[in-house]
Amino acid sequence: MTRRLHVSTTLNGDAVDFLCDPRETLLDCLRDHLGATGAKEGCGTGDCGACSVTLDGRLVCSCLVLGVEAEGKEIGTIEGMADGETLHPLQRKFIEHAALQCGICTPGILIAAKNLLDRNPDPTETEVRYWLAGNLCRCTGYDKIVRAVMDAASELREAS
Amino acid sequence: MNYHTPESFEDAAAIAAAATGTTRFLAGGTDVLVQLRTDLVTPDDLIDIKHIPGVKQITRREDGGWRIGAAVAGAEMTETAALCADWPGLVEGMDLVGSTQVQGRATLVGNLCNGSPAADGVPGMIAAGCTVTVIGPEGAREVAVEEIPAGPGKTTLDRGEVITGVNIPPRGAHGGDAYLRFIPRTEMDIAVVGCAVNLRVDGATITHARVVLGAVAPTVRLVPEAGEAIAGTTLDSAALDRLARAASAACHPIDDKRGTIEFRTHVAGVLAKRAATIAYSRAKGDQA
Known about the structure:
The complex is a heterodimer.
Chain A: E1 5-11, E2 14-20, H1 26-33, E3 52-55, E4 58-61, E5 74-76, H2 89-96, H3 106-119, H4 125-131, H5 143-159
Parallel strand pairs in A: 1-5
Antiparallel strand pairs in A: 1-2, 3-4, 3-5
Chain B: E1 2-4, H1 9-18, E2 23-26, H2 32-37, E3 45-48, E4 58-60, E5 66-69, H3 74-78, H4 81-86, H5 88-95, H6 100-103, H7 108-113, H8 122-128, E6 131-136, E7 139-144, E8 149-151, E9 154-155, E10 162-168, E11 175-182, E12 193-202, E13 205-214, E14 221-222, H9 224-230, H10 237-249, H11 261-283
Parallel strand pairs in B: 1-3, 2-3
Antiparallel strand pairs in B: 4-5, 5-10, 6-7, 6-10, 8-9, 11-12, 12-13, 13-14
Helix pairs in contact in B: 5-8, 9-10, 10-11
């Protein structure tokens, strides 16, 4: 039996603590210990992007991060994206453009897209497609996702 | 599994040297955690090196060369404009590894230590003449990158040895490098063939060149005959043809679903020509 370790971290701006086995991934810890089930497990090997979160502002697959590595870090997940009942423009545009069907990939894609727009408010379509190449979606065919991201980027630029 | 967070490489090496079971060093984790989760390798001791000072630093050395800490992620290299300007081929290679998410974690040293013959980050390092600093029970040593890979998934590192970072030589004047790989799609795949070229010119003449192939042998391979084929030339079509023949002749690839022996051998020559052409125009200061 491996000893459980105590981890103190920040989740969407709130200080949180949890106990975990060092073999548990950050994704397991988010879902099983912190009740943040927005990040999904698709492949579990870093290929599909459904578990995307930010770690100190850097986009990562939470299935390829150990929970213990989150000590002292700032984690950003889909749960921190809307402002109360008010959806983030990306979330609103995903609904408007029907950029989701089953929804399993959506939290990861929204986190990845927001991370892109935080760094590059005016990406080309090519830049959006390359940035999101690690987020697989088996429903939409991607076009609607790309259009939603471009539209949200445009709205965010006008608002700023 | 014991999770260790040493604060020096000497301590990390000592933990590994004293361990009796399976040991892994953890930096970006994009290979180690996949192996852990698919039950390929379950370490008894996992040694996270990210608490060691300096491991996340990219440093320009006084001689104009660079030092890339063992835990520097690919994205951090791509975001360092002066490094990209000096060594675009080396950075391009690392940048081809995985997705945006993987780039946020994956490291150059990890790409080397994973021991894949198809590692996109490795040919550019060898072409550039990089070394790595190794710390182990016997102390520190500096080793040429091409001496690290020993075969698929294997390195020449001894138990208790750990790489602390990559040393990239000064770019110097009139040099250029490039890396190209063939994959059957445009992104997110593993090289069927990879080729890095680093060369220097005097006017229009190549004074020396290093050509490195990936995914066509059990290890990434430095091909001295390919470099010699273009040294002393202006990269005319005869020189390019000699380069392609030398590159193809150095191939000992496997036959698998991603490429046949014949295909990989041919493509190695094609990529060598194209990468040399890009490196040559970069060395001459052309836009490329």
